[in-house]
Write the structure tokens for this entry.
Amino acid sequence: MKILSLNFLTCAVKACKSSSASYPLHPKDAELVQDDIELNPQLLVNLMPRIDWSALSTTATELGFPALPAQPPTPEELEADEQKLKDLHNLLMQTQIMEGKLVCGNCGHEYAVREGIANFLLPSHLV
Amino acid sequence: MEYLIRFSQSHETFRVAEIQALAIVAGFNMEIIHYDAESPFCVVRLPSEEAARTLIKRSIIAQSIHEHWGTGGTFDELHAEVKKKTSELWPKYKTASFKISLDNYQGTRPNKQRVALFNSFSYLPFSGEIKMKDPDEEFTIFEQWDFKAVERNLPAPLKVHFGRYIAPSGRDLCLKFDLKKRGYISTTSMDSELALITANIALAAPGKLFYDPFVGTGSFPIACAQWGALAFGSDIDGRSIRGEGKKKSLKGNFEQYGLQQMLGDMFVCDLTNSPVRRRRILDGILCDPPYGVREGLKVLGCRDPEKEPWVVEKGKLIYKEPDFIPPKKPYSFLAMLDDILQFATDTLVDNGRLSFWMPTANDEQQEMGVPTHPCMENVVVCTQVFNKWTRRLITYRRLPDSEVDSEALAQKRSHVPTNGVTADELNPFRRHYFNGFRAQAAVDSAIEAAPK
Ligand SMILES: [Zn+2]
């Protein structure tokens, strides 16, 4: 599972949706791999307005990446700065959680990630 | 300039929807000058030859595009128009090698007539070599004959067109993505032609995010990835994503086509308890929801927790095991479509598209209407007809909030859905499927008349 996807996903439990503690999910015992993916500047520029920057900062820190700047780069800044593009590309697109868990900060439920595929199915008592 | 699109002869109701979508993707205006469903020839106005190439390159339903030189009810009319409209173009092709072809739809011409037809264009001042193979320019006479023209021995076509060939379509991709040659498929995999067309109609394109919430073996994400979008998908059944692993998995399919760079993520979830954040992040959603024919549709949860407490208790104990499959409860097809529309409303960007497939019986009484939502404007409905049932591709546009009818939206929010009980009660398509699509009244009276 890409770090990008983690920014788009939250706890599947309905009662958690209204709690700010349910997002972002917290990686636990995460085994990371780096994919080799071609840089796609157009995609990254389009993604920026859809990224929750503070959640991404939290995730990056939790996974041991260098701290992100306080503010997201503007599209102009991104287009002008190859290094900024590459760093973001590396974090969002190339970094994958292959094995591990994603933990909800509100209800504590742990979602398993196996072979890069996260499982968000809930047991009956949480539906 | 006017251009003539030569469509293939399949999936007629998808033709206009696809090329209009492709004009939106390419960002230029396209005006349809002439098209009727009886003919595979369509005349459009486009800003340039470059635009014509761009448009047709991604079309699956078209075969080719041509510069339109004229149309007539008879050859006399056609020649008059060609002379009037295109004489300024003639000098450009004076010395080019060329050939003239004949494309007759629903008709034939004996050889002698063909030669006469070609010769009737001899007023064109072309002095270049006539080359049957790889000429610089190819001109085509298009004839639209009436239905069964050969059997009825009709003397002349209904309409004739003339054009200069510009470019082929992307139709060959159907073969590249043919399910027969795909490493990993299931009985419900969407065929490559319709998957690519669906992704076109939903406006998949580079830099965009697309999502299929019923991903199965990944036909739609593969089509979206082919058009350059980053493709996401999920399924309630993780086994369909994983397959047998390696080449026989959804990821293996992406690798087979060299599209792994465009694979976003695949995850296991249930649309009614989706982990996808309700934020406007997606450019397109496309799916072929489970019809619930083979088994009643299921969502997570017990049918009745009071009667089946052991399911809940067992779930509490074993749900942490990796292979745990939660119990499921019946789910109405229509309720599911409602959920999809609400999900699309919450997650699509302005003007983002939702395209989903929906089956119905070929019977007006039993036809399910097009589901509605105040935030989703129905753009187009395309139909594929089978013997006793039909499936429709229904496409919506997420209206910008400023265009949404706020009164209708308030009413929608106050509406409380009712829940049925059995899978048959919940799913009109499944019920009719098992009843052989007889009118419901006939079934009811047959039951009453049966000896007790
Ligand atoms: Zn939670």
About this structure: The first strand of chain B starts at residue 2 and ends at 7.
